[in-house]
Design goal:
The protein folds into 2 domains: 100 residues, Rieske [2Fe-2S] iron-sulphur domain (Rieske Iron-sulfur Protein), CATH 2.102.10; 236 residues, Naphthalene 1,2-dioxygenase Alpha Subunit, Chain A, domain 1 (Alpha-Beta Complex). Helix content is 27%, strand content 23%. The chain is built from 9 helices and 17 strands. Strands 11-17-16-15-14-13-12 form a 7-stranded antiparallel sheet, with helices on both faces. A 4-stranded antiparallel sheet has the order 4-3-2-5, with no helix packed on it. Strands 1-10-9 form a 3-stranded antiparallel sheet, with helices on one face. Strand 14 and strand 15 form a beta hairpin. It holds the Pfam family Ring_hydroxyl_A. Keywords: 2Fe-2S, Iron, Iron-sulfur, Metal-binding, Oxidoreductase.
């Protein structure tokens, strides 16, 4: 194929038939990947951590996102700050990726020294006319919602993060997630494009056949179900499932717990998210194999174990909060075919491992599910790069959120002139 015959990013988007998957070029091409990072991970709000990543003043968490790098810092006033990881002298990185604790931020090159609020405190040999107030660290837009740390690297951040905050803050309030700690965290590099990671997360069409641990507590019917061909007994069982869900929801709402689905997902939306309190199967307490709590020290001042799963999706993350623990995952794209998935398991800050919880029970469901998903993403990415690949139709019953994500993706690119 000649260079002139190579389709543009926009032409690849217009190739997508209505209700069908994306063409392979949108997953495998380097130019598409670079556009995606610039738009979806720079111009949009993204989840990059939790408050317990930087629990104490002086704690720093450094993350690389494409060519950018940011410092998440807990300052001396215990506020969460975020700065570009670029020295204002000659651009050296102040900290490598990972976590650390500092008193001051000292550039390893020429020892320019910054306070935790980003102000330049020391710069040797710059003369009396040098004004250090002009060389503060460059701030990054930051929003803490519950325990979630969202940032936006754009000069002007989308304003509708305020709606996410408005919806989610009261939903997270009773859990008091800022008074939590990380019991365990994991990193998986999935061999697939970031959009395939999110598409996989947006449907449970695959769950029954691939996620035995997850479906012990998670109900795939919550995200679509086709009744064609079901027996009378199966239809009755499905009706009973819907009645049980409705009864549980009324019970929660009578006690003041927010339940309804909120979907901020349309093509005119910038900061995309979805939330709902979902019923947990079995004993209904937590996402564990026996569906009972993994941690007996519940969040906040909660006494009720069966509060379901308060979930939150964004375009780079998914969260599940139960009465006893939370599982928060977010993604960072590394290459067209490489995506970093970070997952953190949170418990009450005073919970003691071996007394209040056993780590294997706490992590058994999502540790297995993440590995299974990584495998699914890998074989799907590989298949989309095969010359024989032709995008197939989505299930209108179980993949509507995948189709919606595809439409939102196209609309956001168009909004940025792609």
């Amino acid at each position: 194929m000649t260079l002139s015959a190579v389709k543009t990013h926009r032409e690849l988007l217009t190739d997508r038939a209505t209700g069908h998957g994306m063409p392979g070029g949108l997953f495998g091409r380097q130019d598409v990947f670079e556009n995606d990072v610039d738009i979806f991970f720079t111009q949009h709000w993204i989840l990059v951590g939790v408050t317990s990543d930087i629990a104490e003043p002086g704690d720093v968490s450094t993350l690389d996102i494409g060519k950018s790098s940011i410092l998440l810092i807990r300052d001396d006033d215990e506020q969460v700050q975020a700065f570009r990881n670029v020295c204002r002298h000659r651009g050296a990185r102040l900290k490598p990726a990972g976590k650390s604790t500092v008193g001051l931020l000292v550039c390893p090159y020429h020892q320019w020294t910054y306070d935790l609020d980003g102000s330049l405190k020391h710069a040797a040999h710059m003369g009396q006319n040098f004004d250090p107030t002009c060389k503060r660290l460059i701030p990054v837009h930051t929003k803490v919602v519950g325990t979630h740390i969202f940032v936006c690297l754009a000069d002007e951040a989308p304003e509708d993060i305020s709606y996410l905050d408005h919806v989610m803050s009261p939903r997270f309030a009773q859990y008091e997630l800022t008074y939590s700690k990380i019991a365990h965290e994991s990193e998986i590099i999935e061999n697939g494009n970031w959009k395939l990671v999110i598409e996989n997360n947006r449907e449970c069409y695959h769950c029954a056949g691939t996620h035995p641990e997850l479906t012990a507590s998670f109900l795939p019917e919550d995200f679509g179900f086709c009744t064609d061909g079901l027996s009378e007994d199966s239809l009755q069982a499905l009706d009973e499932y819907h009645r049980r869900n409705a009864d549980t929801k009324r019970n929660w709402e009578n006690e003041g717990y927010l339940c309804d689905a909120v979907e901020h997902l349309g093509e005119d939306v910038v900061t995309q998210f979805r939330s709902q309190r979902l019923v947990i199967a079995g004993h209904g307490e937590s996402q564990t194999l026996d569906t009972r709590v993994a941690c007996t020290r519940l969040f906040g001042h909660i006494t009720r174990r069966d509060l379901g799963d308060m979930h939150l999706w964004t375009h780079n993350s998914w969260t599940h909060v139960m009465s006893d623990h939370a599982v928060i995952s977010y993604i960072i794209p590394l290459a067209p075919d490489k995506t970093l998935v970070r997952t953190k398991w949170l418990v009450h800050a005073d919970a003691i491992e071996g007394v209040d919880y056993q780590l294997d029970k706490l992590t058994e469901v999502w540790a297995a599910t993440n590995l299974q998903d990584a495998s699914l993403v890998g074989i799907t990415h590989s298949g989309t790069q095969d010359p024989a690949y032709a995008p197939g139709p989505f299930s209108a019953f179980t993949e509507s959120y995948v189709d919606q994500f595809s439409r939102w993706y196209s609309a956001r690119l168009a909004a940025h002139g792609v």
